[in-house]
Amino acid sequence: MSKKNTPEKTRQQTLAFVAVFVGFLGTSIFAGINVFAAHQKNQDFSQLDAEEKFSRLPEYLLVDRKLLKDKSRIVQSIAAKALSDLQSKEVIPQLNKLLERPGIGMIFRAESLVNSLKNSSTDVIFERNVIDYDTGKSLFILKSKGRSLSLGIFFDSNIAVLDQILCEKSSPTKSFKDSILFRWSRTCHNSMYWYPTTEFHVFQYERAISQLIELLQHSDGDVRYSASHLLGKLQIKEAIPQLTIALNNSIGIEQYKILETLIILDGLNESQAKKWMFEMVKELEGLDIFSDSDKKSLAIDISTRIHLKFNQEHKVNSSVMDQSRRMRDSQWTLTGFALAAFLFLFLLTLLSLKELQRIVWKDHLTCYFPEEVVSELSALRGELTQTKKSILLVETTLLYVIFTLIWAFYIQINIENLSLPSKDQRRR
Amino acid sequence: MMVWEAMVVPRQKDDADSVRLSAIEEDILTTLLGRELYGLELLGLMNPGRPKELSFGSLYPALNRLEKKGFLRWRWGDEQDESGGARRKYYQVTGLGVNTLSQAQQYRISLAQRILGWFALGGI
What we know:
The complex is a heterodimer of chains A (428) and B (124). By secondary structure, chain A is α+β, with helices and mostly antiparallel strands. Helices cover 71% and strands 7% of the residues of chain A. Chain A has 17 helices and five strands. Chain A has a five-stranded antiparallel β-sheet with strand order 1-2-3-4-5, sandwiched between helices. In chain A, helix 15 runs antiparallel to helix 16. In chain A, 23% of the residues are buried. By secondary structure, chain B is of the alpha+beta class. Chain B has five helices and three strands; from the N terminus they run E-H-H-H-H-E-E-H.
């Protein structure tokens, strides 16, 4: 009985092989494009200058929330700055365009904001987020890692501005969270006011800021640090008047330190930084709270700081460049891992398709070589496999033999046949 | 019944060319004397101890030459399971092949004897 494959079977095997090959090709192209696109995207963003970064950050935050999880300190800093943008009305129309349902929009904004907070600092962690779907009101409970201070931040449904803040000096307890949730729920549904209780204190926003500033004078260094950090996170317009008070207690300088760090890390040049700084000074001067000596000392202090910062520009720049290099390296490492994983999967699949490949391999050889050669090659393959050589070695050997046979059958024999007697001549 | 494909009569004008045997051809004819073998078996018998291993790439052109010169004939073997139904060709030396090989070997022997005799007579 003939054991030769029928044409139909051969056709099916060939089709299966082609399908597998096309699948692999598709997967590899898809993976390649993804890796390239991801790399390109990050590269594009990193290559923008600071102002562009700042202006385009909201759209990046909207289109790619992965950016918020970036480990880079630069991106984190930019994300921190974008916090105020997310809270501004300029961003909201974009959100509303993208998200028609206010409730969903609120969730999205809330997530973006919380991600910003989470990523902008390692010292503030997100505790809990609750959203009321009927009213769109949202509650975030944040706390510092030291657990010496907790904040409950409430957002209104349509405008993403800070509404009220709850502060507690001690670590958040279950009763604290429950009380917050209960009161928040009542506020949403019954429009109840907030009242101070013995368990925790409810402040209006300004009072909360004042409370934070007071906490900066606390004897416990941990409390002081947390308050400073949380205050830094609340750099919105409403904080400015309180900042002036803070300046009297040298707290404002801490704020400026944060701003300066952001400027330096964003790669602004000296003139831009100065411009920004002096705009801030002007704004503070406009408040007419400072005495002349205060203004002078403040200006000198800021100038000195900027000067010192830019004297260290080379050092800072090189550290920024190191970070960029590390980012690039990590991207390439990831690409390498992706490729290695792909190759590994490819080899695994090849192994699983070994049998199919063996069958298809012979059918293809039949197209190019005489029957006896196909038979010999199959026998050779069997012998090589039995010697327990590696698959790679066997395939390489066979490939070499096939190439030499192609040469022999298509070139050498044809040339030699020109000078050799043909079959017909021999039979004459 | 076996069907043998073989040369009948070589061309007269190519006689001189036809009787020439290269080293590989001579080795193949020698290996095939008195038996029929397929390609891989031939390589298996010829390669041990050979200064330069013979490969399929040089075996098949040599077999083709020998066949065209009428020194070899072949027949199809049975279908092989391991080769998915492809058949092997079994090669055998023809009478002409045996004669040619014999002539070539006799020439070498006589050449050797002449040279030995020449040395014995004090040549050089």
